[in-house]
Design brief:
- This protein is mostly beta strands.
- Helix content is about 0%, strand content about 55%.
- The chain has a single domain, classed as YVTN repeat-like/Quinoprotein amine dehydrogenase (Methylamine Dehydrogenase, Chain H, 7 Propeller), CATH 2.130.10.10.
- The chain has a 4-stranded antiparallel sheet with strand order 3-30-29-28, with no helix packed on it.
- The longest helix is centred in the last third of the chain and has 4 residues.
Amino acid sequence: MYKYILGATAAVTTMVAPTIASAQMPLVKLSHTIQLKAGVDRLHPPVVTDVEVHPAGKMMAVAGDDHYVRIMEVSTGRLILTLRDHADWVCALQFSPDGKTLATAGKDHQLLLWDVQENIQLRSRSTFPSVVNDLDFNHDGTQLALAGFDKSIAIYDAQTGKLIKSLEADGNDLRTVRFSPDGKLVAAAGRTGVIRIWNAATGEHVQDIRAHDDRIYALAFSEDGEKIVSGGEDRQLKTFMTQTGKQLAAISTGDAKVFSVALVQSDKVATGGSDNQVRMWNLETLKEVDHLAGHNGTVAALTTHGQTMISSGFDTTIRVWDLGGQHNPPPVLTVPVSRFSN
C-alpha cells in the first residue's frame, strides 16, 4: 500500500506497512520545506538542534550548531532576525507560554532570556555549570528548568534568570527535561536510562522510573500529565504512569534511535529518529499510525502548534507539516508581536 504526501513544490512517495492504521487519523501533508542557508562565516548550512513556534503561530525560533538563533516566518521561511549572542552551539530554546520570553541555551553554558515585544531584546544572562542540552518552561512561564552535563538540573526564575534551586539527578549526562502540564512535577533523563521525577515546588524526589537500557534523548508528558513517554538510544519507545511508574506500553522503533518526541494530539505522539523519519504513534498502545519521509538526516527536533508540526535536524532543512483534523486553538497573547505577525 502506498501513501502520497503532497508538498508545496514536490511529492514524496513512501511505503507504509500494512499494519499502520493510517485511516484512523487525517492525512498529514507536507506543506513546505525550508532550506537553511550558511552564514557569512561558514561554508555549510547549520545543523538544527531545536525549533520552537511562537504561541501566536506566525514565527519560529531555530537553534543551530553555528551558534546562532534564527527567528523565521513559519509560512514562508523568511529570515526575520538572527540572534548572535551565544559563543557555541545553541542546543535548546523555547518560548514562554504567553509568548513574552524566549529562552536559549547551549554548549557555552549560558542561559539567555530575550524579551519578545516589537523587537527581540536580550533581558538577562545567567550561567549553568556545564553544557545545556535541554530546557523547559513550566505551565505559567514563571520557572525554567535546565539540564545538561551536570549532576543536577537547575530551576531558574524565568523573569530574572536567577537560580531558584538545583535538584540532584541520576547521572551527569542529562539530555531532556520536562515539566508536567500543570507544573507540579519536573522530570529529567539521560545516559543512565532512568527517568527521575521531582515535586517542582518542594524539590522532593518523587521516584525513579528505570525505563531504558541506554541513553534517553526525549521525554513528553501526556496532556493530562498522567503518562510520560520516553525514547532514546536503545531504539525503544515506552509509556509509563507518572505517579506509579508502571509501564503501560513499549515498542521497538526498528533501526531508529529516538531523538525527539512531541505530543501531537491528546491521543498521539510523534517521534523523530536516526532513520530520517517522523513517525506517529497511538499514545495508549504505541501502535504506529503513520510515518512521514523526506528528511535525509536524523530528525533531532520536533514541535507542534495547532494544526502544524515542524521537523528538522541534521539535514539542515525544516519541514512544515499540515496535521489536519481538529486541534485546540492557540492561546490569546497579551503582548504586541506585530512585527512578527503581520
